[in-house]
Fold each of these.
Amino acid sequence: MNRAFPIAAALLLLAGCERPASRSPFFESQAPPGLPAADLAPEGWAWGAVQVGEDPPQRYGVASPDVVPQGQAVIVPAYGETAEAWFSAVRTLNGAGLTVWVLDRAGQGGSGRFASPRDLGHVSSFEPDVRALEALVGAVVRPSPDQPLTLLARGDGAAVAIATAERGLPADRIVLWAPHLASRTAAPSPRATLERWMGLDRRPPRDWKPWAREDATKSDPVGAGWQLVNPDLRMSGPSRGWVEAHQAASAEALAAASSLSLPVLQLGRAVGGDLCPRIARCRQEQTGSSALDRASAARATAAFALERSAMGEAPTLR
């Protein structure tokens, strides 16, 4: 007798028994004790959420400068980052006269989850990120000629930024900071496709470990502090499905890069595939690529966002 279907059905039923509360979005984060003032929430910081269709809500935050804004910036973090970790960068961009929005990634940070445990990052594709960014910009940010929009995407967030720009997102320019594309961009295997259909791509890889303070602090001390005090923000490694989704999104980003007409600034070293040579109007600047370099990336982004020729037009990039 073929027992594959009964076993698959049992696994799907078990997946449906997880507590919904563990997947809810999270807004009321508490600051870690002793955190420097520069890493606290900027004055006037406010939370919101955007939800598209049946996707879990994605959390965003926003802060405006204390002067008339000269433009807007939307930050698309890398895997595992939360909006709280970007507070110092938001302050820098606010100081340059920009209204700043940070959109937590799908199934990460303070956003609702697709799977449990909560610190397992999972999506079956990057499409929820793309749809949420389109909805945030179109319905909430609403850029205009006197309030142009700059996207700042870090790490694998570059694939989201390129996908939305290729679809016509009304952005004025894009900053790709240390873009991280998957080194393998082949189409999903038949087995991976079947696992996704059965919901088994939500499982962690065999070497996956739950969030640990020691591991988080090594790469991002500020972010780790926020996650320590706020367990709902904790992120460990990604699911098998997320890895497959990153590979597919990376392939699409490499294919779409040559069609981009917006000015693009690449900061730092690219991982997995260099996008800038494929983009018609792209220049590169050297900056650090670690989470400790967010302030430097913010300063470069502010200069690029406000850069205009004497005629008030976007710069011509090589």
Amino acid sequence: MMNSFQEQLAIDNKNVIYNTAEFALSIKWNGHALIVVDETPTESSQFTHGITSETVIYRCAIDSLNPPPEINERVDINGNFWMIVSIQKLTNDFVIRLERLRP
């Protein structure tokens, strides 16, 4: 029996995209292991009015975060606090943009 397109996409994501031997990395999200793909642009820091902010963009499997993330939620990633500024919900993934201020 053949898989549906959505089922095959989920299998491919798990075996390739979210494989830490390929594209993914493991982070600690609020103390729990989370497999993500870092989609952060090369220049992810901005300097405005004497304040530097940093942005990261992570893609993760939609079923890997429960409860789902919310905009303006403060999260601890690997011991650093970040604010969720946008969430894009795709078919099988979340694309989450986070920011933090740096001294």
Amino acid sequence: MKKKEQFIIIPEEAWIKGIENKDYLACYCFIREHALMTNKVIFTKKVLYDQLRVKRQNIKERVCQAMQQVLNDFCDDDAKIDFKKFKVNELICVFLDEEKLDRKGKSFAKIYADDLIKLESYATSQQNYQDMLLLLCYYRTRMIKRNTDSTVEIAPAILYKYLLDISTELQLPLSATVRCLDILQEVKIINLYRMNTKKINDNYFTGKLIIYDYVNRDELYSNEEILDAAIKYVNKKSKDQ
């Protein structure tokens, strides 16, 4: 029997806020990750700072403001706290409102526990971690979802986009977008396939980027079958446009 995988749900409205305020998205993921099995979260500021790779005092203050906003948005109304009053090693216990957390609507990102472990083990800085987290949420929300009634040819579980469009939508520098995608591939969270790369006057021009999960979780198709179907799917869509 296949072991049930743990994951957290990130509503689109939560990671969209992360485009303007990446601390908010990181804090939201933190409380969801620490409340995988219950609606109660117990942690300290030190644990929060360590996980988010925060060292400078001014950044710590900014993270505290973001966490206060997250707790205001998702805690029980009668259990809200003043986050700034807690000392760095003081135990913090908060109860989350399940109804507020479950308002995911139609668009959301499913982030698995092993995704978070890989991100946290590889990230070398706060910005590095937050950029990768934002990009992963974007991909998992925007990707084509395949249900049990769909074949891989009809709905391959992929995202296909121009690199520049991804960078623009997430308000990330192009260089940061490329770096984050490469790291996500290196830590085996995603696979990348670049369509129709051409060299013109010593410059490389890349077509749409196909992104798909490194770990094939439904086990119905191999990664090779998914990529083959994805290339045919993208080529067909391009001809139809």
Amino acid sequence: MAEVSPTGSPACTLQTHTRLLFDCVERLARGYVQSDHVKYCALEMYCRFAPAHEDAQIAQVKRSTPPGREREEGLRRLRARLKQQEPLRALTCLMIACKVAGERDANLLHPNVTPLTVQTLLETMGYMYTVGDIVRSEQRVLEQLEFRCFKTTTELELLELLMSAIVLDNLQDSVRQGFVMHHFMTLLDALYRSSVRLLGSALLNRAEIYVEFYRLIKGVREIHPRHR
């Protein structure tokens, strides 16, 4: 699906990160990650790590090379390397999320996500990394995030907060017992599962949704630079 939001905008960037990490989970790591919470925690980490890491690397190149052709070539090579490393970084965040969120304790019947697991998954994608490379990637991610793995509330946690508000608003004395209560909880479970699917779809198409929303509010499709 083509990006319609200006390149480099927050909508476009988040959408790109979401697609990459969700693709890693759905196509490769499905047997290892059984929790939506882990997936969204990994996304939150990756969305913080990727731009901060890129900014730090760019600053280092600018400090070490004078303005001119040499610097531009250095920045070009840097961006190409960072692009190639994206699956490694995304799966590293997923591995960290599994550790911190207690995925291993919650799913004892499923294999653990280890550096060897990540190595195998990357090989499936055509990338060759050693276990040592993956361990160093984990260290790089943690250091860049200053070991603050879950710094902000994830989109899924916000959704669950909204669902909790719905429950409190509708759970009156008349529906706390019996068939009505059972029916209410069944509908609530279906609503939750549908909402999680819609949330994933919204994140995967965030740029398009933002452009359409902007058009409805402003009456134009061209997004002003200060609104990107």
